[in-house]
Design brief:
Layout: E1 2-3, H1 6-16, E2 20-24, H2 28-41, E3 45-50, H3 51-56, H4 62-74, E4 78-86, H5 89-95, E5 102-105, H6 112-128, E6 132-136, H7 159-169, E7 173-175, H8 193-202, E8 207-209, H9 217-226, E9 228-233, H10 235-251, H11 258-279
Helix pairs in contact: 2-4, 2-11, 7-8, 8-9, 10-11
The structure holds glyceraldehyde-3-phosphate and zinc ion.
Glyceraldehyde-3-phosphate (G3H) binds at residues 24, 84-85, 182-184, 210-213, 232-236.
Pfam family, one: F_bP_aldolase
Enzyme class: lyase
Cofactor: Zn(2+)
Length: 281
């Protein structure tokens, strides 16, 4: 169909009171798997490439972005390209040229004042380049200068602080700390859906859930029903891919063609994304 702006997919989620999946791309096979699952479900999806993934590709933004954009353009459903967890300001300025329509600026580990100032500056640069920008509030109440990641265990986003943060930074969406954590390989997270509802009522920007790999299906659905509009998933694909590669290689010691195990891994990742898409309203 088309490479569409992330803002369009998120606006669609807002309209239907659901959530769009934003899934991490590390290799070409990830992008293919995600788009295949989205096509099978007939649902649009966000391909997101993290700054860490760019680092994995030697710090070069363009090759993996071009691969993602090409797969997106050929997809039978709307797909967007999002640059995730950016801490390097120069990447914000380069994103649009590399076909991204959105960025997530991650100043969450910085003291609150610095997070505000740097995020506000990143938002100005992003908007000047036509980009939609998401950010995260990195600390919760009490200790305004304590650097705590929004996704550290036990951290929660305070609705009042979030409202002030959004109005002072001018971001288009907010990643909130409501009980999920990054890189969980077991789906044992317990979300505070009451807090999601209070954040939704207080803020006039869409809410984003990070670390969704560790969230069970019923809670993902409840989170979307409570007000989460973008659901970020990464680790679950790593789990599916690695498990599949291990199994294929263990089954045949003579195997040397990488297509054999990468095809199976791609299929496994696609299954994981398909399951996610079937859960989100
Ligand atoms: O921004 C990306 C997501 O927050 C991924 O988190 O790897 O824990 O699913 P996850
Ligand atoms: Zn994240």
């Amino acid at each position: 169909m088309a490479l569409v702006p992330t803002a369009e997919l998120v606006a669609g989620a807002v309209r239907r009171g659901g959530a769009v999946a934003a899934v991490n791309v590390v290799t070409l096979e990830h992008a293919e798997a995600i788009c295949a699952a989205a096509e099978a479900a007939g649902i649009g999806v966000i391909l997101q490439i993290s700054e860490n993934a760019v680092r994995y590709h030697g710090g070069r933004l363009e090759p993996i972005a071009a691969a993602g954009a090409a797969v997106a353009r050929l997809a039978a459903v709307p797909v967007s390209l999002h640059l995730d967890h950016v801490t390097d300001d120069t990447l914000v300025a380069r994103a649009a040229e590399a076909r991204f329509s959105s960025v997530m600026y991650d100043a969450g580990a910085l003291p609150h004042g610095e997070n505000l100032a740097r995020t506000a500056r990143a938002a100005r640069v992003a908007h000047a380049n036509g980009l939609w920008i998401e950010a995260e509030l990195g600390h919760v109440g009490g200790k305004p200068d304590a650097p705590r990641s929004a996704h550290a265990a036990g951290v929660r986003t305070d609705p009042g602080e979030a409202e002030e943060y959004v109005s002072r930074t001018g971001v288009d969406a907010l990643a909130v700390a409501v009980g999920s954590r990054h890189a969980m390989t077991a789906r044992t997270a317990l979300l505070d859906t009451g807090l999601i509802g209070r954040l939704r009522d207080r803020l006039d920007v869409p809410l984003v859930l990070h670390g969704s790999s560790g969230v069970p299906d019923d809670q993902l659905r409840a989170a979307a029903e409570a007000g989460i509009r973008k659901v970020n998933v990464g680790t679950a694909l790593g789990v599916a891919m690695t498990r599949s590669v291990r199994a294929v290689l263990a089954g045949d010691e003579t195997l040397v063609d990488p297509r054999t195990y990468l095809a199976a891994a791609r299929e496994a990742m696609s299954g994981t994304v398909g399951q996610l898409l079937s859960v989100l309203p």
